[in-house]
Design a protein that fits this description.
Elements lengths: L3 E7 L1 H5 L3 H10 L3 E8 L3 H7 L9 H9 L3 E8 L2 H9 L12 H5 L8 E3 L3 H11 L7
Antiparallel strand pairs: 1-3, 1-4, 2-3
Bound molecules: 2'-deoxyadenosine-5'-diphosphate (DAT) and magnesium ion.
2'-deoxyadenosine-5'-diphosphate binds next to loops.
EC number: 2.7.4.6
Protein name: Nucleoside diphosphate kinase
Cofactor: Mg(2+)
C-alpha cells in the first residue's frame, strides 16, 4: 500500500502545559506511524528560516518569539494521505474555528499559540522534515 509522510512539531505551549503525551496518543490513534522524532529547541535563525514564507506578515516576530521560547517535539509521520489527514486531525489554524475533537480544538489557546504544526503539502513535508532530521534519523 502506498504511504506518504508529513512533518509535525508539538509547539512550546504543548510542552509547557504537559500535553505532549496526550497529543502523541491522538496522533498514534489516528493511524500515523512515527518515522522520526526528537525534542529540540529552535534558534531565532531556525524559526526565521522555517517560517520564511511569513516574514512579511505582521505576526512574524511574535511567531518567532513563540516558537523559540522553549523546547518542541519534532516528528515525521507516515500514513496514507498523510498531509491532508494530519491537517484534518489538527484542525483549523485558529482554534476558535477548529472542529470538535481536533488537536487544536482540544489543546490550543489561540491563533498565535496553536499547539501543533502540520505541513501543508507533500513538497513542504519533505523540506520541513529534512530541516529537522538528517537522513540517518528518518526510519
Ligand atoms: P498553519 O500553522 O495552520 O499552517 P499558517 O501556515 O497560515 O497556519 O501560519 C503559520 C503559523 O503562524 C500559525 O500556526 C500561527 C501563526 N499565525 C498565522 N496567522 C496568524 C495570525 N493572523 N495571527 C497570529 N499568528 C498567526
Ligand atoms: Mg502552514
Amino acid at each position: 500500500m502506498a504511504t506518504n509522510r508529513t512533518f509535525t512539531m508539538l509547539k512550546p505551549d504543548s510542552l509547557e502545559k504537559g500535553n505532549t503525551g496526550a497529543i502523541l496518543e491522538k496522533i498514534n490513534a489516528a493511524g500515523f506511524r512515527i518515522v522520526a522524532m526528537k525534542m529540540t529547541q529552535m534558534s531565532t535563525k531556525d524559526a526565521e528560516t522555517f517560517y520564511a514564507v511569513h516574514n512579511e506578515r505582521p505576526f512574524f516576530r511574535e511567531l518567532v518569539e513563540y516558537m523559540t521560547r522553549g523546547p518542541i517535539v519534532a516528528a515525521i509521520l507516515e500514513k496514507d494521505n498523510a498531509v491532508e489527514d494530519f491537517r484534518t486531525l489538527i484542525g483549523a489554524t485558529n482554534p476558535a474555528d477548529a472542529a470538535e475533537g481536533t488537536i487544536r480544538k482540544l489543546y490550543a489557546a489561540s491563533m498565535g499559540e496553536n499547539a501543533v504544526h502540520g505541513s501543508d503539502s507533500d513538497e513542504n513535508a519533505e523540506i520541513e522534515g529534512n530541516f529537522h532530521f538528517s537522513g540517518r534519523e528518518q526510519f
